[in-house]
Structures are given as C-alpha cells and as structure tokens.
Structure to design on (160 residues):
C-alpha cells in the first residue's frame, strides 16, 4: 500500500506475518528526480553531484532539487561535480552483520563531508588505529561495467 492509498475496509489493515520469509513489497521505490540524476551520474561518469543554494549557501550532497532551509529551487543546470574526495566527519564500528550474527572483523561506517554536504558510507583499506575525525578519504568506485546506479557503485571510501 502506498502512502497516498487509503483502506476502506478494516480487514485490509493486516499485519505482516513474521512466518513469511520475504517482506511483501508491492510498490516500486524511486529515488525521485534528483536522486535519479545523482545515481545516473555516479553510474555513467563516476561523479558525485551536489547542489548549492544561492540564497543561503548550503551545499547538499547528494544533490537535491530544493533547499531544505529556504525552499529555493536548486536548478539541475547549477549542480556541482563535487569530486570524490572528502573528510571523515564521524564514524562508527559495526560488530554485527545484517542478520544479527557477530562479524569476524568489524566494519567501519562513516559520515563523510564532501563540499559541505554529508554522505554516509563504508570505509575500506583503513586500519582503526589510523582513523580520526578530519581524515581525508576518497571514493573507491566499482568498475563501470559493475555499476548499477546506486550508492553501492561506490565500494567504499579509503584514506588518501
Ligand atoms: Zn537555501
């Protein structure tokens, strides 16, 4: 059921049966106009795009169509190639896998500041001892023929 759909019969308000192994998704998710272009640029050209608001100078990474502060329209013609380098703004260690099982080696997730915006992603080729806020990192992209137009087209960020 989509957000705009409305049930008219209470029998339609069912719960998900946890005995079913797959969650029943009936709708297609889209990344929206801005997200679509952001992921296409990442897939086709290996570029990370941001958008900057002329009024309040905020930069968004990934690029957006509207400024969340002043609602200014951020025209696509003005989007910026912000490069693939940034610095660690924050990070955390993951000790459990998605299924809840303990991981042999913890993985590291980081908020990476790129041109004033923030992107959340994995870190790789990085030892925990050398990790620090402000560390410069660069996106390690998958080979073009393996990219699918998602954030997973970036394998991880690694120290410069
Ligand atoms: Zn603005």
């Amino acid at each position: 059921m989509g957000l705009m759909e409305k049930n008219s019969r209470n029998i339609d308000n069912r719960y998900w049966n946890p005995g079913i192994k797959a969650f029943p998704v009936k709708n297609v998710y889209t990344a929206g106009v801005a997200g679509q272009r952001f992921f296409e640029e990442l897939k086709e050209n290996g570029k990370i795009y941001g958008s900057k608001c002329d009024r309040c100078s905020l930069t968004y990474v990934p690029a957006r169509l509207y400024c969340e502060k002043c609602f200014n329209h951020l025209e696509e013609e003005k989007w910026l190639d912000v490069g693939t380098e940034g610095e660690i703004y924050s990070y955390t260690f993951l000790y459990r896998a998605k299924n809840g099982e303990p991981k042999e080696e913890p993985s590291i997730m980081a908020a990476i500041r790129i041109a004033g915006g923030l992107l959340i992603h994995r870190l790789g080729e990085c030892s925990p001892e050398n990790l620090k806020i402000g560390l410069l990192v660069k996106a390690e992209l998958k080979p073009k023929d393996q990219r699918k137009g998602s954030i997973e087209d970036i394998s991880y960020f690694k120290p410069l």
